[in-house]
Write the structure tokens for this entry.
Amino acid sequence: MAIVAPSILAANFLQLQDVCQLLNASKADWFHLDIMDGRFVPNISFGIPIVEAIKKAASKMLDVHLMIEEPEKYIDDFKKAGADSITVHVEACPHLHRNIQQIKNAGLKAGVALNPHTPICMIENILSDIDMVLIMSVNPGFGGQTFIPHTLHKIKELRKKIDKIAPDVLIEVDGGINLNNAAAIIHSGANALVAGSAIFQTTNPTATIEQFKMII
Ligand code: DX5
Ligand code: ZN
């Protein structure tokens, strides 16, 4: 069964403890934490102290998505804060291989994210060194955007490459995912879906997560 990773970005920050308890008790697999620096993306979200606080209340894996420049400066801090997996953007990392080594040496799972315009070939030579590829299906920076349909072709292309080169690598997809497009994304070859608004902007997030799990 595929993984569902609710994005905390869309949750009510005044009730983070309740949100964590809700996710702990739900069928969600991971907590997806979106870190934005106002430089790599045109928005600032939250940082290390919030990750630390969530770690205290969360009983599931913290999937930390760094939408920041110079992520190498903060890998150790995010590890200390409780990240289980760290994903960096290929567009923010001229020395991507070194950054991946840094994440792996810290004992964490390593992911690489691709913006919608970035071709799959950019990560071909690093596929066997990572645990996950994160395909952005919106332009990173904001929750609540519309899924870019071309992403489905990209997932299919990546699935073929991964099956050939590194079959254990997971494909995570992030942005504009809802109960209507989830099945198509999984059929294209994804293993993990991030969803923010589709989960937290419903009256019953627990039931929505369950519906996601049933579909995928
Ligand atoms: C976008 C973030 C996403 C976002 C998804 O930059 O990386 O994780 O929170 O939110 P929705 O599901 O609302 O598109
Ligand atoms: Zn994200």
